[in-house]
Amino acid sequence: MNSQFNAIADGLAENGYAVIDNFLSPDEVTAIVTLDAFREGMAHFKKAGIGKDHGLQINEAIRGDYIQWLDKNTSPAPVLAYLDKLNQLVLFLNQSLFLSLKDYEVHLTVYPAGAYYKRHLDQFKKNDHRRLSVICYLNKDWTENEGGQLRMHLDKETLDTLPVAGRLVCFRSDQIEHEVLPATRERLSLTGWMLDQLADVRI
Ligand SMILES: O=C(O)CCC(=O)C(=O)O
Ligand SMILES: [Fe+2]
Q1: Model-level pTM?
Q2: Fold of 2-195
Q3: Which atom of ligand 1 is nearest to the CA of 111?
Q4: Which of 180, 188, 189, 193 to mutate to test the pocket of ligand 1 (most atoms within 8 A of CB)?
Q5: In Å, what is the CA distance from 127 to each residue of 59, 79, 203?
Q6: CA angle (141, 5, 133) in 5-degree steps
Q7: What local confidence, expressed as pLDDT, does residue 36 receive?
Q8: Is the distance from the beta carbon of residue 117 to the nearest atom of ligand 1 less than 6 Å?
Q9: Which residues are paired to 136 by β-bridges?
Q10: Looking at residue 58, what is its pLDDT?
């Protein structure tokens, strides 16, 4: 694990982003995607439609994903294991890159087939405390012709990354514009941010 953390720190320092495979093992991914809470939650999101009360935010013109914020106290064990790993990564990055990250926040994300998220920067407001974006994908047997790439717009090129199970992408929220291309199948992920202040309480 330490070599993965090192690779993330190196990538962030040198390029502003890092892509790491097997951040979660196949078993860890299976444990998360087969959780009742996850499967039921997804059905619930779709039925509930737009509504803040259910932790769901949709703006179809820009993004077509469905989200559920994760609670660090009450999430099921496989999710807590992932959150704990992120917490360790926060501590590691603070030490190795001299950052002062204070907290992190994560939501489960579902992009139904055909959904996308147009080009954007995650830190778009002045008072935004998102410093690093960190996304882990949960899609087994994903192939290139299924689409769903994360497209990062770098200085001189664009970089497409497939959302394959266990892969982690981490990048500077204030610097790297990115978008999610539409896919031909449902696309699952854990989307999070490392913050320079404590996270709001979200339901
Ligand atoms: O799922 C991804 O690859 C990126 C998601 C994203 O850009 C976001 O939620 O801000
Ligand atoms: Fe984003």
Answers
A1: 0.91
A2: Jelly Rolls (2.60.120)
A3: 1
A4: 180
A5: 21, 29, 21
A6: 70
A7: 81
A8: yes
A9: 168, 190
A10: 58
pLDDT given for residue 189 in this prediction: 95
Smallest CA-to-CA distance from 105 within 131, 144, 76 is with 131
Q: Where are the domains of the chain?
A: 2-195
Q: pLDDT value at position 66?
A: 82
Indicate whether residue 122 lines ligand 1 (CB < 6 A).
yes
Sign of CA dihedral 1, 87, 41, 78: positive
Query: Residue 149 Cα, ligand 2 centroid: separation in angstroms?
Result: 12
Mean pLDDT split into 10-residue runs, the chain, 203 residues: 92 98 98 83 51 52 83 93 97 96 93 91 79 97 98 97 98 96 96 90 47
181: helix, coil or strand?
Answer: coil
Rounded CA gap, 88 and 56, in Å?
28
In 36-155 the beta strands, taken as DSSP E runs, fall at 66-69, 103-111, 117-120, 130-137, 150-153
Three-state DSSP state, 21: coil
